[in-house]
Structure formats: structure tokens, C-alpha cells
Design brief:
It is a single chain. The chain is an alpha+beta fold. It is built from 10 helices and 22 strands. The strands form 5 sheets. Strands 6-19-16-18-17-20 form a 6-stranded mixed β-barrel. The longest helix has 15 residues. The termini are far apart.
């Protein structure tokens, strides 16, 4: 059986084109976080793969683990340096607006990162040092702490250049039910039992950051069912319903965001989050509408797509099925006072958490983000934390900015498609190699 799975995995690789990932152009204003990854696993030593720019064909699994480090088995006290040639050390004054940000707004998010990085030896020292500050430090104290404990590194794209794409995402609210009714007809499914997960790192170490989703067909492993096939009943998902909702377009964008809340008629609010994905690449329905001449590029926002769907209910299935990717959900504990849990395993903080490509920026790290507000030239320069990932978040200089929960956050997220630059803050003794030089001190 193991041999069959390995052979099937190679077939899936060829079919999905993942030996040589081919980047796509950024999609027009559609929130660029189609799925959220599986619950995080402890980081392991990894040699980062080349990072493609911006939005890329969605791999059939969560994005690569961050390029963090672990101690060698034979020498538990020694850290293995990681090659990150796309980073360049800079002085603090080179960060736009560094002296102007109210860092007290980012401090709770940093402490959350320390929770998620617990057990990672590269971060132990700075997280312990953070605990020595007062419970509510002043902004200048936080700035002094960061400048003394961290080195700022400007992030460049693998192909050169320091500018990238910054989009936005949020936590939506839907109406739903725990049972199917005439109104609530669209199910949120949990992962099906017949879906296989093939870890390519078990076959090729250089592909250790890629996994595939598939299913057995006779004695072969073949790609899992796509969106249209799942909706048509091909997948064994009956009995896997988590909740039912009343709007297929809102449900689609719940899959795009990866997490959200569903309000039941009895007033209860249920939080749902990403559980798995069918392994097919994400395709932008906004781009499809533009190419078909259904909407203009300036209308290819989340709200523009929703408006088109409501005006064209007879073509809605055709539109949604142009994206073969399908996200499965699970019910989460409903802590109303905190954000959804990101890939780092900690709650996201409104306007202070971002999703990144963890092959370029270590998950959990502080990041100085320099961009502009949605559809505006007003500067948005602030300290944020890399606490989430997304299958469409591809490239070193690539961020998805978490705006928070609700309708207002959704409007900002749907409109955000800005240019931006990024600087990652790493501990001064972080084991990094840039241009052949070790960052270990």
C-alpha cells in the first residue's frame, strides 16, 4: 500500500504541476486568503524553497513551515543557521514612521506570538526578556526593548525588489442553523473520511513543505474531488455537516477568509475555522468575471462580486465552480473577546496581525509594515505580527492584513490591494545566514 501511495503521489504532483510551481499574477482586489492552514505543528529545521511572487497556484496543503530552526540531536544547545539571502540588515531609522507608531497597540499581539513560539529555541531569549517588562509598558519602553533585542532586516523578493502586494482579510458573520431548513440550505462540511494526505517530504526532502490531497481509486491515488464534484454529491460528505447557512455567496467568501462566525436564530453565535482543503488550486472568480466582461476591473472587489451574484442567481453555480478549491470547516470555541486563531495557533489581533508566506518571513516574528490604507494614499506604517498564513499568500514581500470582525472590517479588507514594503525583526542571536554570512553572534 505504501508503494501505491508513493506512486500515486508522483502522479498527483505531475497533475498539479507542483514540481515547478508557476506563479500567477495577483487577482483583482479579491481578498487573497483562500484557505487557512491546518492546525500548526512544531517548526522543524528546513531549507527554504525558492519563493514565488504574490499569488500562486494554491498547493494542496497548508503553506510551508516557517524557516525557523531547531537544535541538532547530537548537540541540543546548538542551533542550525538558516539561509535567508533575501534579508538585508538595516538601521532602525530606515523604517518609515518607526518613531511614530503607538507600540502599545502591538504589544499584546507580540505576547501572543511568544505563546505560539514557546519551545522554539531561537525565540526563547527575547520572549523571556519581554516578560521582564511591566504588564503595560509605555510605547517608548517597547521601542527601546525592540531596538536592544532585535535586528531589523529588510525583506526583498526572491527575484529582486523590495515592493510587494498587501491585501486584507477579516472574520465574516453569516446567518445559519444547526439543521437544514428551507432557508438554510447550504452546508459547511467537515473533512471527508476518504481524503488522503500525502506528505511529500517523506519521499523527497526538498519537497518537505508540500502535501497533497487525494483519494484512492482502485489501486491508484488520484486528485480529490473538485468544488463542482463535491457540490454534485461525488464526495462522501453526507453526515459531515457542521452548520447550514442561507447565502451561497457569503459561504463562498467564508471559504476565502478561512474562518468566521455564524449567528443562529436562537441568538447563539458559533465560530468556525479551517479544517482542511480538497487540494485543488484556488482560482479567482473576480478575475473570471473580468475576463468574461461581466464586470470591470474596478468592480472586481469582494462587494462587487457579491452584487453580481445577487443580480445573477441563475449563473451563480457557474461562477463559483470556476474555483475548484473547496474548504472544509470545524466548529471552534466561541471566545467573543478574541480573534480567530491563525496558523501560529494563537488568536489574531485586529489591525496588528498579518498572514505571510512563512518560507520568506518566520511565523511569529514582528514585522514592520509600510503600506497605505485601502484605496488611499494615507500611510499605514506600523508594527504587526506574522501570525497567519494563506495558500494565496506567496512571496517574501507579501502580506494579508487582518482587519478584524464584521461588516466594516469586511469593507476595508475587500478594498485593500496596496503596494507595500516589509522589514522583519529577528532576535540579535537568530541563527541566520545571509549572502554566506552567519547572523549568529
Amino acid at each position: 500500500m505504501r508503494a501505491l501511495v508513493l506512486i500515486g503521489a508522483l502522479s498527483l504532483l505531475a497533475g498539479c504541476g507542483l514540481f515547478q510551481p508557476k506563479p500567477l499574477e495577483p487577482e483583482p482586489s479579491v481578498p487573497a486568503l483562500p484557505t487557512r492552514p491546518q492546525p500548526p505543528t512544531p517548526p522543524a529545521p528546513t531549507q527554504p524553497l525558492p519563493v514565488p511572487p504574490s499569488i500562486v497556484v494554491e498547493p494542496p496543503a497548508p503553506p510551508a513551515q516557517e524557516p525557523t530552526v531547531a537544535a541538532q540531536p547530537e548537540d541540543a544547545g546548538k542551533l542550525i543557521p538558516v539561509a535567508m539571502p533575501w534579508l538585508k540588515p538595516v538601521s532602525w531609522w530606515q523604517l518609515p514612521g518607526w518613531r511614530d507608531d503607538d507600540l502599545t497597540l502591538a504589544w499584546p499581539a507580540w505576547l501572543q506570538s511568544c505563546r505560539g513560539l514557546r519551545g522554539n529555541p531561537a525565540w526563547t531569549g527575547v520572549c523571556q526578556a519581554a516578560q521582564q517588562l511591566s504588564a503595560l509598558p509605555e510605547s517608548d519602553d517597547i521601542r527601546a526593548f525592540l531596538e536592544s533585542q532585535f535586528q531589523a532586516w529588510q525583506v526583498s523578493q526572491s527575484e529582486g525588489g523590495t515592493e510587494g502586494l498587501v491585501t486584507g482579510y477579516y472574520e465574516p458573520l453569516l446567518r445559519g442553523s444547526r439543521a437544514r431548513t428551507a432557508r438554510y440550505r447550504y452546508p459547511l462540511y467537515g473533512p471527508p473520511d476518504d481524503m488522503l494526505v500525502v506528505d511529500l517530504g517523506a519521499i523527497y526532502p526538498e519537497l518537505k513543505n508540500l502535501r497533497l490531497r487525494g483519494r484512492l481509486q482502485g489501486n491508484k491515488v488520484v486528485p480529490y474531488w473538485n468544488r463542482a464534484e463535491i457540490e454534485a454529491g461525488a464526495a462522501p460528505v453526507r453526515g459531515k455537516e457542521v452548520l447550514w447557512v442561507d447565502d451561497p455567496v457569503e459561504f463562498f467568501f467564508l471559504q476565502v477568509q478561512g474562518s468566521g462566525r455564524v449567528r443562529l436564530d436562537n441568538g447563539e453565535t458559533v465560530r468556525v475555522g479551517y479544517a482542511d482543503q480538497n487540494g485543488h488550486p484556488y482560482r479567482s472568480i473576480g478575475k473570471w468575471l473580468v475576463e468574461k466582461g461581466e464586470i470591470t476591473l474596478d468592480k472586481a472587489s469582494m462587494q462587487g462580486i457579491k452584487d453580481w451574484g445577487r443580480k445573477n442567481p441563475d449563473r451563480l453555480t457557474e461562477l463559483l465552480n470556476t474555483n475548484p478549491s473547496y474548504v472544509f470547516f470545524r466548529e471552534l470555541s466561541s471566545s467573543q473577546g478574541s480573534g480567530p486563531v491563525g496558523a501560529l495557533g494563537v488568536p489574531l489581533t485586529n489591525e496588528r496581525s498579518i498572514a505571510v508566506d512563512p518560507r520568506g518571513v518566520p511565523l511569529g516574528a514582528p514585522v514592520w509594515l509600510a503600506t497605505t490604507r485601502p484605496n488611499a494614499r494615507e500611510a499605514l506604517n506600523r508594527l504587526v505580527l506574522a501570525q497567519d498564513t494563506g495558500s494565496a499568500i506567496r512571496g517574501n514581500v507579501r502580506a494579508d492584513f487582518f482587519w478584524g470582525y464584521g461588516e466594516d472590517a469586511g469593507k476595508l479588507a475587500g478594498a485593500m490591494k496596496q503596494k507595500g514594503r516589509m522589514w522583519v525583526l529577528l532576535p540579535r542571536d537568530y541563527p541566520i545566514i545571509t549572502n554566506g554570512k552567519s547572523g549568529l553572534q
